[in-house]
Amino acid sequence: MHEELRRAGLQDRVPDVPQSLQKVKEAKLGSLRLIAVLASIAGLVALNTGFVAAESVQKLSGAQIRAKFAGMQLTDEVHYRFAYERDGTLRSFAMGVKKRGKWVIDKDQLCLYIQEPDDGCYEVARSRKTFTLTPVALGSPLDGILQPISDPQ
Fold this sequence. Notes:
single chain, alpha+beta, 8-stranded antiparallel barrel, 9 strands, elongated
């Protein structure tokens, strides 16, 4: 390559062409290595995050739901609370409105009946102190914490 450049007269005009080309190649390789390393790190972080999330969520069985919910209330501590009496009575307090109904366990689902559009069954999952009720039919999940019933009847 040096000989071709010298014959063309370019060697004299740009004396370090081969060295410059080598530096450009090295810079490109360095950039590609950096991108590969960053992509690997991002993949490991995403994998680790997914593993932690999957590890911390536990779907409850029917027996676990009954053991956790009976005699307790589920609340977001602001807008609502559902009191699950041990006899199957459900008392709902939401946005200043009180309602009464019943709760039952059907297979591994918590079923709520208080004459609401949201009546129906929910799968229950726990992540640390937060319980998530996900409707089996249409609807949005409900998140809250369990605590002793604040006004036992």
